[in-house]
C-alpha cells in the first residue's frame, strides 16, 4: 500500500454561506444536509459528534458496523481509532512524569536496552516524535508481525539493529510509530502493568471513558465495528483482519464518539494534566499525538489529529476560540473524515465550506473514450515520475496507480472526478480533438503519454 497520506482540499460543489447564515440556520440541519451526499453515495460509515462550549449540537451514526451481518453503526459503537491512539499514550507518559515515575530527559537506554541510538534518545524525543527511530511499517516482515499476537517488547524487538533514519532532535513531520511502541514498553516497565491496564489506570478511568481501551487481541464488549475497505464506487468489503497488539502505543486503542468527547473535555480541563504539560503539548506543533494548524482557512489556530489504519479512519479537531470539537470515527479505510472535519470546522466558524455533488449516472461510452489514457507526472509527484492510468473496470472508471491500488473513480461531471481510495479531486483537460491531454491530481499535472502496456514508474 502507499505510504503517503493526502489531506485533500478539493472543491466539488461549493456552498457559499451568506454572512450570518450559519447563525440563523440550525447547525444540526446544516450538518445533516452537508453529510447527505456522503451517506447517499455510500461513502461514509461511522459516527460523528460535534460540540460547542461543552454542549453536543450534533451526534449521529451511519452505515454498517459489519457488511456481512448488516448490523448498523450506532453512536455507542466502538471503533479502532488508528493514530488517535498517540494522544492517549502521550498523556499516560506525561501523567507518569507528573507522578515522578518518569523524567523527560531520561535516555531510553536507561529503561530499555539495545534500542538504536538509545543512549541519545530521550523520553521527550519519543513524545515529540523526533527520535529518528525507523518506522516498522516500512520494514520487510511487518505484515508478518500483524499476523500474530505481539507485545510491546516483541514490537520493539522488531526495530532493534535497524539503523536510525536521523539523529534525535532533528525536525520531523512524520508519525513515529516506533517511538510510541517504545513508549508503550516504557509505560509497562514503569508501572509494572500490562500496557492496556496502565492505560486504563492513567487515562480511561480518570476520565470515565468506560467504552475505550487498548486492543491486545482479547474480546471487546459489543457493539464493535469491524473494519472495511472500498469496493467499487459505492460499496465496502471487510478489511483484512490484523492483530492490533502489533500496534501498541500508536494504533491499538478503540473508543466511541462519546468517550472521545470525554477525552477532549478532560484534556482541556485543569485537572487531568498540569497546565504546563498541556501547554507543552499544544505549543510543540507536531508531536504528542497532536498537530497545530493555521491552514485550511481556519480563522484561529486549531489542534487536530487524523488516523488511518487497516479498515478504519478517524479525525478530531478542537477550535479553542469557540471551545468547539468535531469527532469523526469511521470503519471504512478512506481518508474521508479529514475533509469532512475541516468542512464542519468551517461551518462552525461561519465560513464557506464545500460538499460533494456526485453524478449518479455513469459516463456514456463516448465520454469514457475521451478521458481514458495514461498520464505521466513529474519528480515532485507523490510517487516520483509515476504514470497513472485512467481506465475502466468492472464497476466503471478506475484510476490505476503503479504498484496499486486500482482506485474506484466517482464522477462529478464529464471532466471532474474523485479518486475514492484517497478521496482526492482530479480533473482532465482536453486537447483540440476533444480527448484528454492533461490530468490534474490535487496540485500536480500529468501529461498524456503514449500508450504502454501498464502504468509504471521510472
Descriptive account of the structure:
- By secondary structure, the chain is of the alpha+beta class.
- It contains 12 helices and 24 strands.
- The chain has helices spanning 21-24, 27-40, 85-98, 123-128, 142-146, 152-157, 177-191, 195-204, 257-267, 275-284, 337-348, 365-371, and strands at 13-15, 46-52, 55-62, 64-66, 71-72, 79-80, 213-214, 228-231, 235-238, 253-255, 286-287, 290-293, 302-309, 312-319, 324-330, 353-355, 373-376, 387-393, 396-400, 406-413, 416-419, 424-430, 436-441, 444-449.
- The strands form 6 sheets. The protein has an 8-stranded antiparallel barrel. A 7-stranded antiparallel beta sheet has the order 3-2-15-14-13-12-11, sandwiched between helices.
- Helix 2 runs antiparallel to helix 11 and helix 3 (85-98) crosses helix 8 (195-204).
- The chain is globular, with a radius of gyration of 23 Å.
Count of alpha and pi helical runs: 12
Main sheet makeup: 8 strands, antiparallel, barrel
Q: What are the low-pLDDT stretches, counting only 5+ consecutive residues below 50?
A: 1-25, 452-458
Calculate Rg over CA atoms: 23 Å
Largest beta sheet: what is the strand line-up?
17-18-19-20-21-22-23-24
Number of domains: 2
Shape: globular
What's the CATH architecture of the largest domain?
3-Layer(aba) Sandwich
Mean pLDDT: 90
Assign the structural class, choosing from mainly alpha, mainly beta, alpha/beta, alpha+beta, or little secondary structure. alpha+beta
Report strand %. 25-35%
Task: Specify the CATH homologous superfamily of the largest domain.
Answer: DD-peptidase/beta-lactamase superfamily
Oligomerization status of the protein chains: single chain
How far apart are the termini?
Answer: 18 Å
Number of strands: 24
Instruction: Output the CATH class name of the largest domain.
Output: Alpha Beta
Amino acid at each position: 500500500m502507499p505510504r503517503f497520506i493526502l489531506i485533500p482540499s478539493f472543491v466539488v460543489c461549493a456552498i457559499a454561506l451568506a454572512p450570518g447564515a450559519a447563525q440563523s440556520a440550525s447547525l444540526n440541519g446544516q450538518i445533516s444536509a452537508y453529510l447527505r451526499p456522503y451517506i447517499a453515495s455510500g461513502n461514509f460509515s461511522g459516527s460523528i459528534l460535534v460540540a460547542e462550549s461543552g454542549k453536543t449540537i450534533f451526534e449521529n451514526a451511519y452505515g454498517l458496523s459489519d457488511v456481512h451481518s448488516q448490523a448498523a453503526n450506532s453512536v455507542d459503537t466502538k471503533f479502532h481509532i488508528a493514530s488517535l491512539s498517540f494522544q492517549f499514550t502521550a498523556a499516560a507518559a506525561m501523567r507518569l512524569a507528573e507522578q515522578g515515575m518518569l523524567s523527560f530527559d531520561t535516555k531510553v537506554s536507561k529503561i530499555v536496552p539495545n534500542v538504536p541510538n538509545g543512549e541519545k534518545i530521550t523520553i521527550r524525543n519519543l513524545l515529540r516524535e523526533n527520535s529518528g527511530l525507523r518506522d516498522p511499517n516500512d520494514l520487510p516482515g511487518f505484515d508478518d508481525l500483524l499476523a500474530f499476537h505481539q507485545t510491546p517488547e516483541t514490537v520493539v524487538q522488531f526495530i532493534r539493529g535497524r539503523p536510525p533514519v536521523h539523529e534525535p532532535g532533528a525536525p520531523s513531520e512524520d508519525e513515529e510509530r516506533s517511538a510510541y511502541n517504545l513508549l508503550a514498553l516504557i509505560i509497562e516497565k514503569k508501572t509494572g502493568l500490562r500496557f492496556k491496564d496502565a492505560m486504563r489506570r492513567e487515562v480511561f478511568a480518570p476520565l470515565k471513558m468506560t467504552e475505550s481501551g487498548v486492543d491486545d487481541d482479547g474480546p471487546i464488549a459489543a457493539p464493535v465495528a469491524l473494519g472495511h475497505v472500498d469496493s467499487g464506487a459505492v460499496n465496502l468489503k471487510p478489511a483484512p483482519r490484523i492483530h492490533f497488539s502489533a500496534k501498541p502505543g500508536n494504533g491499538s486503542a478503540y473508543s466511541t464518539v462519546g468517550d472521545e468527547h470525554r477525552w477532549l473535555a478532560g484534556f482541556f480541563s485543569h485537572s487531568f494534566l498540569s497546565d504546563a504539560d498541556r501547554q507543552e503539548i499544544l505549543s510543540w506543533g507536531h508531536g504528542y499525538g497532536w498537530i497545530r494548524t493555521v491552514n485550511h482557512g481556519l480563522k484561529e489556530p486549531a489542534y487536530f489529529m487524523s488516523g488511518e489504519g487497516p479498515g478504519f479512519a478517524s479525525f478530531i479537531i478542537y477550535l479553542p476560540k469557540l471551545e468547539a470539537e468535531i469527532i469523526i470515527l469511521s470503519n471504512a479505510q478512506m481518508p474521508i473524515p479529514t475533509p469532512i472535519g475541516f468542512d464542519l470546522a468551517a461551518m462552525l466558524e461561519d465560513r464557506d465550506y464545500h460538499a460533494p455533488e456526485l453524478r449518479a449516472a455513469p459516463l456514456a461510452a463516448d465520454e469514457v473514450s475521451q478521458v481514458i489514457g495514461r498520464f505521466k507526472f513529474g519528480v515532485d509527484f507523490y510517487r516520483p515520475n509515476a504514470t497513472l492510468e485512467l481506465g475502466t473496470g468492472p464497476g466503471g472508471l478506475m484510476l490505476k496507480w503503479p504498484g496499486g491500488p486500482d482506485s474506484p473513480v466517482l464522477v462529478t461531471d464529464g471532466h471532474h472526478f474523485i479518486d475514492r481510495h484517497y478521496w482526492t479531486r482530479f480533473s482532465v483537460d482536453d486537447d483540440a480533438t476533444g480527448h484528454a491531454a492533461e490530468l490534474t491530481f490535487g496540485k500536480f499535472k500529468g501529461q498524456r503519454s503514449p500508450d504502454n502496456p501498464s502504468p509504471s514508474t521510472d
